[in-house]
Specification:
Blueprint lengths: L1 E6 L6 E6 L3 E4 L3 E10 L9 E6 L6 E6 L4 E3 L8 E6 L3 E6 L9 E5 L2
Antiparallel strand pairs: 1-2, 2-4, 3-4, 4-9, 5-6, 5-10, 6-7, 8-9
Length: 112
């Protein structure tokens, strides 16, 4: 598991985001899915969870963020490639559709 630990500036709360390894399903197309499990975020369904991609030797790039329901994409071209959903009280999933060698990167979730 990849973990990202963050604490608020006032020191009152800690947030832990745990990511699963990507699960890949092959049907007509191949999709990779990652889960981000949040601990310590009150009102999880209404906060923004951000998803980033980092290609080796390049700076991280935000792909999208999701608040209460709808995902907001940093580029319109990402709408068919990536998707995200919140499930239950603390899980956010991220999918990469029609994966190919150009999608090789580290993907991670973030919250602030």
């Amino acid at each position: 598991l990849l973990c990202f630990l963050s604490s608020f500036l006032d020191g009152r709360a800690q947030v832990l985001l745990k990511q699963s390894q990507a699960s890949i399903s092959r049907r007509q197309t191949t999709t990779a899915r990652i889960e981000c499990i949040a601990e310590g975020i009150p009102n999880f369904q209404s906060v923004n969870i951000h998803w980033y991609r980092q290609i080796p030797s390049k700076a991280p790039e935000r792909i999208l963020y999701i608040g209460s329901g709808q995902a907001y994409y940093d580029h319109d071209s990402y709408r068919t490639k990536y998707s995200s959903l919140k499930q239950g009280p603390n899980v956010c999933t991220f999918s990469v559709n029609n994966i190919n060698s150009n999608d090789e990167a580290t993907y991670y979730c973030a919250y602030w």
